[in-house]
Amino acid sequence: MGVAEFYGRWAALYDRVATAPGVARWRRAAAAHVADRGDFVVEMGCGTGVNLPYLSEQVGPEGTVVGVDITGPLLDRARERVVELDNASVVRGDATRPPLSDSDGVLGTFVCGLFEDPAAVIDDWCDLVGSGGRVALMDATATEEPLGRPLNPLFRAFVAAGAPGSTPREVLRAPFARFDAPLSRRVEASRTALAARTEDRRYETFAAGFVGLLSGRVH
Ligand SMILES: C[S@@+](CC[C@H](N)C(=O)[O-])C[C@H]1O[C@@H](n2cnc3c(N)ncnc32)[C@H](O)[C@@H]1O
């Protein structure tokens, strides 16, 4: 099953997970990392648009926010979400071949683990914002923080359950296998690529280290 088909099927459930209590704090922080007043900011893989109100508030009335996603049913929900926001809109498109050529900032949350070649995608996003522009990535991985480590098996099952194409057997075995290893490799590759292209970087973690937010200003 492809990414768009998978997320399209689970759009309503995904929206509930994406708006779970406590998650708002991470999303507000992500918006603050990437957007300033008056900016034009693009969110790649915006899903149901949960970040868009935070980005909209951050850029203010003189700024603009565009959400991009390949999954129609998720974008429908995102469109409902932005209908009352004067400075935000959504467009269907592929984040690995951005449909926009210029912006002040690019945000990608929980999306880099889905790309075949995340380093190449991050390079393109850095080119898109150009020198002085900001790129921010927020992703979940297993944690090394002592408080969270006992929950890593649960995290692996969550990753398996949320991965396009995984079987029930894989979900059951995930806590005992490194099911999350490809995801972690991709997230790591995206962070390494971002670090190579940026300065003035900030990194913060949430949820006992399961969620990491890295941002930087392109050289
Ligand atoms: C785990 S969801 C995250 C959604 C949203 N960023 C959030 O934080 O709630 C991953 C999203 O990435 C989108 N996506 C995956 N690959 C994509 C691509 N190549 N281009 C655009 N969107 C993509 C999916 O459709 C889905 O909406």
Summarize the SSE layout with pairings.
Blueprint (H helix, E strand, L loop, with lengths): L2 H7 L1 H8 L4 H12 L5 E5 L7 H8 L4 E6 L2 H11 L5 E5 L12 E5 L8 H12 L4 E7 L11 H10 L6 H6 L7 H17 E9 L4 E8 L1
Parallel strand pairs: 1-2, 1-4, 2-3, 4-5
Antiparallel strand pairs: 5-7, 6-7
Helix pairs in contact: 6-9
| Poorly predicted sequence stretches spanning 5 or more consecutive residues | none
List the bound ligands. Answer: S-adenosylmethionine
| Corresponding CATH architecture | 3-Layer(aba) Sandwich
CA-based shape: globular
Tell me the CATH superfamily. Vaccinia Virus protein VP39
Q: What oligomeric state best describes the polypeptide chains here?
A: single chain
Q: Indicate the CATH topology.
A: Rossmann fold
The number of distinct β-strands equals 7
CATH domain class name: Alpha Beta
What's the story with the biggest beta sheet? 7 strands, mixed
Q: Determine Rg (CA atoms, Å).
A: 16 Å
**Distance, first to last CA:** 38 Å
Describe the structure.
By secondary structure, the chain is of the alpha/beta class. The chain has a single domain, classed as Rossmann fold, CATH 3.40.50. Helix content is 42%, strand content 21%. It contains 9 helices and 7 strands. The chain has a 7-stranded mixed β-sheet, sandwiched between helices. Strand 2, helix 5 (72-82) and strand 3 form a beta-alpha-beta unit. Helix 6 runs parallel beside helix 9 (181-197). The radius of gyration is 16 Å and the shape is globular. The N and C termini lie far apart (38 Å). The mean pLDDT is 94. The site of S-adenosylmethionine (SAM) has 21 residues, from helix 1 and strand 2.
